[in-house]
Amino acid sequence: MENTDRVCFHCGASCTGTPIVRENRDFCCSGCRTVYDILSENGLEGYYSMDRTPGARPGEVSGKYDFLDNEAIAEKLLEFYEDNIQVVNLRIPGIHCSSCIWVLENLKRLNKGIRYSQVDFPGKELRISYDSRHVSLKEVVWLLGSIGYEPRISLENYEDKPVAENRALLYKLGIAGFAFGNVMLLSFPEYFEMGEFWLEQYKPFFRWLMFALSLPAVFYVAGDYFVSSYRSLRSGLLNIDVPIALGIAVMFLRSTADIVFGYGPGFFDSLTGLIFFMTIGKYLQQRTYASLSFERDYKSYFPIAVTRISGEREEAVQLYDIKKGDRLLIRNEELIPVDCRLIKGNALIDYSFVTGEARPVSRSPGAKLFAGGRQVSGLVEVEAVRSVSQSYLTKLWSSNTFKEKKEERYTNITNTVSRYFTPVVLTVALLSLSYWLWLGKTDTAFNAFTAVLIIACPCALALSAPFALGNLLRIFGRRKFYLKNASVIERLATIDTVIFDKTGTITSAREGSITYEGEPLNRTEEDMLKSTLRNSAHPLSRQLYTILKSNNILTPDEYEECIGKGIEATYREQHIRIGSGAFAGNEDRESSPKTSVHINTNNRYRGKFIFGNRYRQGLSSLFRKLSGKYRLVILSGDNESERKTLEKMLPPGVQMCFNRKPEHKLNYVRQCQQNGARVMMVGDGLNDAGALQQSNAGVVIAEDTNAFSPACDAILDASRFREIHEFLRISKKGMQVVKISFALSFLYNIAGLSFAVTGKLSPVIAAILMPLSSVTIVIFVTLLTNFIGREPNNP
Amino acid sequence: MSVIYILITVSIIVAAVFLIAFITAVRSGQYRDSYTPSVRMLFEDELVEDDQSCNTENKQSS
User: Which residues cross the membrane (chain B) (predicted)?
Assistant: First the structure.
C-alpha cells in the first residue's frame, strides 16, 4: 500500500499501480512524463515552481486532428491569414492556474514556428500567431494536446466567429461619469449662492456649459431609455424605462427652459447624476461569467469534421457536407454525428448524454445508430441515413421552444411595479397641474407639473433590483452556482415544482459504485485481473482498474482484446477472460438491466462486477428538505431498474417517470406550466436541453464547469448539489429585499413629491434627494443581500 | 478677459483628455480581460532571467 501517497509530479493524481519514475519524480502515466520531458528540455521547468502539480493529464491525441489538414476546415478556424502569418483563437478548457498562462504564453520556445501566444484567462482562450511555413495548424493543436492543453474544436467554431464584446456600455459609463463630474463641479457656485457680484456675472457661462456637457449624456448615454420606452409603449406595456425616459426628457427640457429664460440653474446636476447611476446599474446587471456559456446547443458538442470513406480513400469532411449514403469512419471515443446504419464492426454506444440511458448499448452491423452517441469500443464504419440537421437529436432544436428568447417570456418585478407606478405619477402630476391652473397660477402650475415628473423619476426603484440581484449573483458565484443573469433569481424565487433528471444529475457520472457478485477470487486471480485490465483502454476497465487493490503487476504472455466483447489474457498456465456475460460464459442468461463485467478464469465462470449508480451525497436530505415546499419529480431517460432504490431513499410523494425521451421531457415541463406550475428543471445533458429551455429556470449540474453543458439559465457545480434548497431560499429572501427597497424608494418619492406639488422644488433639493435616495437604497440592498447570502457556519 | 474662462476651459480640457484616454483604453481591449495581465506582469522578470541562462548556455556550447 506504499503507492497511496505517491502523487504524480505533473498532474497531482495519485499514482495507482507502479508509478513511472524519472529524475526522482513520480508520474502517474507516460503522458504526464512526456509533458515533463518536453517542458524540462525547453527550459520551462519554472512551470512547476509556480503551482504544485499544475498540469493536466494529456489526453489521447493521435489521429484525432487529421481533419485540420483539410484546408477548408482549417480556414474556418483561423481568425487571420496573410503572408504565411496565421492567427487562431482556440478555446482551451484546461486553463486553470497561473502556470497554465505561463507555459501557454511561452509556446514559442517549444516550437520556433510560433510567433506569439496570448492567454485570455477569464474566457479560457488562447490566441496563437504562427508562421505557416514552419508549422501547421494541426501541429499547433497537436502540440497543445501533447502538453495537456487540448483545445476544444466543435461544430460551433465552424459557424460563428467570436463576436466582438459589447463595449458600448463602457463608453457610456465613461461619458456619463465625465458629464456628471463636470456638471456637478460647475453647479457648486449656485448651491452656495451668496449674491456675490462676480459669480452673478458668470452665471450664464456656467449654465450654458452645463447644458453643453449634459447633451452627450442625454442623447447618447440615455438614448437606450428613449428607444426602449418607445418600444414598450408601442406594445402597450409600461415598463420601468417609460417613467425614466419621461423624467429625463422633462428634466432636460425644463432645465433648458430655465436657463433660457433665466429662471434658475436648471437640474443638469441631478440629470447627469441620474444617468450616471443608472448606467452603473446597467453595467452591473450585464456583467456575467466570461468563461461560461449559457447558450450552447448540440453544435458545441458535435465535432467539426468526421472521416469519410470514399472508395479506398479516407478524407476529413465538414459535418454539414455529409450526405445521405456517405460512409463514415467512427473511431474509438468519437461521436456519431448523424443518424446512421452500422456497416462494419461491433459498436458499443454510450448514449448517456443524449438519452440519459446510463449503460452503453451494444449494436451489431445493420442496426440503426442515432446521432449524439459516443462510440466506446474500437473502430466502426457507418452509413449516414440522414443529414446532420435532420437527425433525431438535432431536430429538437427546431422546436418552437428554442426560437423565442427566454427573458422575453417573463416580465421582471421592476416592470411589474412600473405598470402601477407610472399611471400614479402621471395622475399626481396632472392633478397638481390642474390644481394650480385652477388657482390661476400658471407659472407655479408648470413648475409643479415638471417637478413631479422629475422627482418621481424612479432612479432608486430602477437601481434596487439590479444591485440586489447583481450582488446575489456574485454571492451565488462564490458558492459555485453560476447564473446566466440577475433575472434568473427572480424566477428561482417563484418556483413551486422541481424536476430532476436522473443520470448525471442525481447520480454522479464520475464515480460509480462497483460491487462483486459470485465466487470470491484468490490473490493470484486478482493480480491477473488487474494486470489484464491495465492494458485496456475501455472505460469500464479503467473504472474497475482503479478500485482493485492488488499491486502485483504481472506481464501477460498472451493478450487479446475482442472489441465489443471483452479481453482475454494468458499468464503461464492461467487463463482469464473479462467481458460481457456471453464472452465470459455466464450460463445465467437472464439479462440484468445493470451494467456488469463478467469474469472467467481457466474456463470457469466466476462472477461479475456490477456497476451501480452512485447517488450524489446529500441527495436524500436535499429531497427531504425540498419535499414540504415543492412538488418533486424525477424525469429519467433511463429504464426503471433504479425505481426501488430511489423509492427507498427519497421521501414519499416524489413522482418518478422513466423512459422519457428528450421531447417527452420538454412536453412534460410544458404541461406542468399549463397547469400553472412554475418549474425548475435540473438536468445535465443534451437530453434535458428541451426541458431546460422550456422550464422557468433551467439548472445544469456540471462536474466540471468548463465541460460542455447545454443551454440553460444556471450552472451548478456538482459539489454544491446538496445546497439547491439553500439557493432557492436565498432567492426568495432576495426578492423580499427588493420589495422592501421598493417600499423605501416610494417613501423617498413621497417626500420628494411633497416638495414638487407645492411648486417649491429647488435644484439643490433635487440634487440632494436624488443621489441620497439612490445611494442609500444601493447600500441597503447590498448589505442585506450580503447578510442573507452568507454561508452558514463557514469554517 | 477673465481668468475664470481660462481656468474652466483648462479643467474641461483636462477632464476631456481623461475621457479620451478611457475610451482608447476600452477600444484597445484593456477591459476585455482584466485578470490575465495581472498574472502576466509577474512572469516578466523570470523570463529575462531564463533568457540569460539560455544565452550563457549557448555561449558555453559554442
Answer: 6-26
Measured in degrees and rounded to the nearest 5, phi and psi for residue A514 equal: -115, 125
* Contact by Cβ (8 Å): A9, A37: no
Question: Which residue in the block uniquely carries the three cell numbers 458535435?
Answer: A302
Integer Cα distance of A134 and A232 in angstroms: 57
Cell numbers representing residue A544 in the block: 474497475
- Which residues lie below 8 Å from residue A755, measured CB to CB, with a gap of 6+? A451, A455, A761, A765
pLDDT-derived band at B59, boundaries 50, 70, 90 = very low
Judge: B36–A122 Cβ closer than 8 Å, yes or no: yes
Residue A769 contacts residue A752 (beta carbons within 8 Å): yes
Give the residue among A580, A555, A582 at the shortest CA–CA distance from A570: A555
Other C-beta atoms lying within 10 Å of the C-beta of residue A405: 7
Evaluate if pTM is beyond 0.80: no
Q: Between residues 13 and 42 of chain B, which touch chain A (CB distance below 8 Å)?
A: 15-16, 18-19, 22-23, 26-27, 31-36, 39-40, 42
Three-state SS for A15-29 is: CCCCCEEECCEEECC
Residue owning grid cell 413621497: A750
Residue that the C-alpha cell 490473490 belongs to? A523
Within its chain, how far is the Cα of A222 from the centroid?
A: 31
Q: Please give, rounded to a whole number of angstroms, the shortest distance from the CA of B39 to a CA of chain A.
A: 7
Selected residue of A120, A196, A289 to mutate for chain B interface (largest B Cβ count, 10 A): A120
Instruction: Give chain B positions within 8 Å (CB) of A200.
Output: none
> Of all helices (H) and strands (E), which one includes residue A383?
strand A380-384
CA–CA distance, A435 with A757 (Å, rounded to integer): 9
What are the pLDDT digits (tens) for A100-152? 787 888 888 778 888 888 888 877 888 888 888 888 888 888 888 777 787 87
Q: How many residues are recorded in chain A?
A: 795
| CB distance A380 to A348 below 8 Å | no
Spatial distance between the Cα atoms of A364 and A347, rounded to a whole number of angstroms = 6
**Residue A585 gets which letter from DSSP?**
T
Q: Which residues of B touch A209 (CB under 8 A)?
A: 8, 12
Residue A599: Cβ-neighbour burial (10 angstroms; 0-12, 13-18, 19+) = buried
Give start and end residues of each alpha helix (H) in A56-161. 71-77, 98-105, 107-110, 137-146, 155-159
Cβ-defined contact of B43 to A181 (cutoff 8 Å): no
Query: pLDDT tens, A234-245?
Result: 887 778 888 889
Residue A211, pLDDT > 90, answer yes
C-alpha to C-alpha distances, A42 to A56, A85, A376, nearest whole angstrom: 19, 24, 36
Check: complex ipTM more than 0.90: no
Domains, chain A, ranges and CATH? 2-41 (no CATH), 66-139 (3.30.70.100), 481-506+617-729 (3.40.50.1000), 513-612 (3.40.1110.10)
H-state helical runs in A336-412: 352-355
What CA–CA distance (Å, rounded) separates B8 from B10?
5
CA distance A323 to A390: 11
Neighbours of A587 (CB within 10 A): 6
Residue A724: is it exposed, middle or buried by C-beta count within 10 angstroms (0-12/13-18/19+)? buried
Distance CA A350, CA A540 (A): 12
Strand A513-518 relative to strand A558-562: parallel, antiparallel, unpaired?
A: unpaired
- Chain B: residue whose CA lies nearest to A104: B40
| CB contacts < 8 A (A, B) | 60
Helix ranges (H only) for A346-386 are: 352-355
User: Rounded distance, CA A408 to CA A431, Å?
Assistant: 35
